User: Fold this.
Amino acid sequence: MLKVGDAAPDFSLPADDGSTFSLKSMRGKKVLLVFYPGDETPVCTAQLCEYRDGFEDYRELGVTVVGISKDDAESHRRFKERRDLPFSLLSDVDLKVAKQYDSAGILGMKRSVFLVDEKGVLRYVHVESVAIFRRRHDELIAAIRGL
Assistant:
């Protein structure tokens, strides 16, 4: 199990815009990795739209938000456009990265959130035990400000 203080496992995944996102390339920036079960599902939509609505708070704190699910880039493009999401969505179709982050379960992707600091160290770790629960925007902002 990953815990606060561990080095964040490096990875590269395809993004919704056709580029490749590499965690290593984000050194020097804070990154919030948001693993979620799937595009357009009720809880995931509510969660990511809440992060969208509070996006300015993340920006003010210097945090880059990145969503990760098993859906492919085309699904992500439609979801992002339909919901006007201002952050990248990455495709982890084989759950390889989810497994590195203890976010793969029997039914697919677990809902989880990881804050990676500028040096690539985990500063916040939360993996939901039940997929219907989620970290709310205000909880995450309070945790980030408390670091």
